[in-house]
Amino acid sequence: MEILEKTKARVFKFGDKTADGNSTMKNLLGGKGANLAEMSSIGIPVPPGFTITTEVCTEYNLLGQEAVVEMIKDEVEASIAKIESQMGTIFGDKDNPLLVSVRSGARVSMPGMMDTVLNLGMNDEVVLGLAKKTNNEVFAWDSYRRFIQMYGGVVLGMKPASKEDIDPFEEIMEHLKDKRGIELDTDFTVQDLQDLVYDFKDAVKKRTGHDFPTNPWDQLWGAVIAVFNSWNGSRAIYYRNMNGYPADWGTAVNVQAMVYGNMGENSGTGVCFTRDAGTGENIFNGEYLINAQGEDVVAGVRTPQQITKTGSERWAELAKVEEEDRAENYPSLEELMPEMFKELNAYQDNLEKHYRDMQDMEFTIQDGKMWILQTRNGKRTGAAMVKIAMDLLKEGMIDEKEALLIIEPNKLDELLHPIFDPKALKRAHVIAQGLPASPGAATGKIVFFADEANKYKNSILVRIETSPEDLEGMNIAKGILTARGGMTSHAAVVARGMGKCCISGAGALKINYKNRTLTVGDHEYHEGDWISLNGSTGNIIEGKVATMEPELSGEFAEVMELSDKYGIMKVRTNADSPKDAKVARGFGAQGIGLTRTEHMFFEVDRIKAMREMILADTVKGRKQALEDLLPMQRADFEGIFEAMEGLPVTIRLLDPPLHEFVPHQLATQKELAEEMHISLQAVKNKVSELEEFNPMLGHRGCRLGNTYPEITEMQTRAIIEAALNLKERGVICKPEIMVPLIGTVQEFVMQEQIIRSTANKIFEESNDTIEYLVGTMIEIPRAALMADRIAEHADFFSFGTNDLTQMTFGYSRDDAGKFLPIYIEKGILKVDPFEVLDQEGVGQLVKIATERGRSTKPNLKIGICGEHGGEPSSVEFCYKTGMDYVSCSPYRVPIARLVSAQAAIKGTL
Questions:
Q1: Catalytic positions, please?
Q2: What is the reported pLDDT for 6?
Q3: CA–CA separation, 731 vs 768, rounded Å?
């Protein structure tokens, strides 16, 4: 097995303008490791280090700690020696110590989902040596207390005892601040920091029963293993499931020489973006802190300052800070350290041009020297993603195909969410102002704890600051509001990645977790009170604010035009009403791939006639009831045809079993019996007669139409007459009648004969004709295997992959939720096959049916109308299979249009 190979490289070094890897090796080195190697190779000042590959993480999960440590020990020790030679320091030496950082790095960016340890290598002797070497006792002891705090939390499991409690180390610090009457970490004296180190170690001993580890090598291996373990931590698993990332990817581990932003007033650290991650505006922006380490910026404990003067002025306006106060107390990096800013500005420009995409960078200034710690393609909102792609295209940095390929299809969904009605905003009562960390409109009830975000249908998660543990609640909530933190805080970065409305750094908010209250000035808000967030302005609004549908124009429209230019496979919609059809057409749908006629029967005025038809004991009785339904069905189809004028409309004949239409409540059964002038027992008998042990495989679909041909006759008449009526008014209709759930050729032929003979009667009656097609859904495995013979009769195929998945796996869609999450967790399945098309199994049936159908009829029209028609990887599969179209819900149409283009482009690369 490959995992037992001793010869392959498992550790890749970088630093001093050389590297073993490069940016194309993200699957092996993780995104962070690959980019560190790339930056080192192109001359960016990167602290030297090494990357332990993602494959080692997989090996660790299979073989365990002892085997993996033995496997990579020699390579890690050699790599540490290389860092020592480049930095001129020695790992574990008390007089000239090398300290390192240990960070995770998956192949995709997962902000805050896995763990980081800084200042590793510290102990009671090293801290004294570091203090002496730097002549800076505060720095040395501050670094030591930070290390114990991070290592304690990440490696030793020192977490808050309950959700109402704060971090145990933070609790010790807050106690000391109260005792000393100070507010900021930077106000601690050497003695304070020494006391903290002693108290931190004492807390570790009490909580874990063990002394804090002092051997730097033990510390290093503990941190490496903790990073591997964090890949399967609850945060990372939730994030992977949320984004569809496979569990077998694993994470790399990046070990780097420490550079220090906490050495004094000539040092600092920050995070920056080459463009605005919220709006896409082409403006360099970011935040920094003087005398701090990287985690301080994203943690939100200290409110950071802006990197550019323009950004600082914008921040001051939002925070209502006077210019004089801003310039003196909150200066930008551009003003405070102009040379450092100039160097950083050059690096951000170079890196964006090198990667040809917006970059998210981390940097540290150590005693006047600039170091770049990371770069990656930045997480961004859907609106920013579209704008950045179009702007990079217009700037000539990328071409049209590249512009489409850098857009993440699912994030287009964000642009389709409702926005606040401007009229309602004018009447709104703004109670506070924060930073517009992630655009959008959110209205909901206040919750204070992430694990209670699902307490209300619409919730706003209100926190002092968020942490990675809050991920699931952040995903469930409609919006996120924090009292602390800036534009690069954890809340801001994660919310933008999710496309979730977020306001951060609202300093006027006083949040009390124990009492579950939010106080603004003299007003107190409680859990369950309604508030609204305007993520575009940072306004926090009392109560609900009305919303409206967004207009899709500007760069979004340009992306859609480009998609249609390169897309070959068409995109239709699933629509059961004229309203849905109009929405979908507005989004660019090129027809309807599925109209479910049964949905039309559930309305109050129709369900009675439908039940009369079901309860009728004779063909005559059924036909009479169907006569009542005919004008209603015809009017429905007229509305849909009109909305889709000139485009094909595929209408599926009645599919569900009849028991779905009869009443199951005694009161409703009595009502029906009275209306039909029959006995209650007769109704009960019919309901009982229609019950089936497995209705999904029972009397439904074409089986209904073949046993009760009058149903198919009525539906055909409604469709054809509707099309002829509109033809008289000059409206072009293209009906496609689809027979559901066939398993044999004979089933389809019988239905086709009923449809065509009924249509011919109507043509004779009206002395007019219209073109129409008769096809079938391929949703039973046998039909897929018989596709060549079915194609002798059918004008088109449409894959109903919901049922096809159900029958191929043998999973009941309605019951699979009981075990599918466990299957995914245990690795039996990678994803839910009802959400993402199973290309290995169900997909093979789709391929077989397509090939066999077209072997009989080369121009056979083929599409898909299951839920998979709007899922990106499934749409790409449909293109590769040679389908003519995919059909999806109206709000997935833009996504499918983009993926259709991306698939065609990938096919030419």
A1: 490, 865
A2: 53
A3: 15
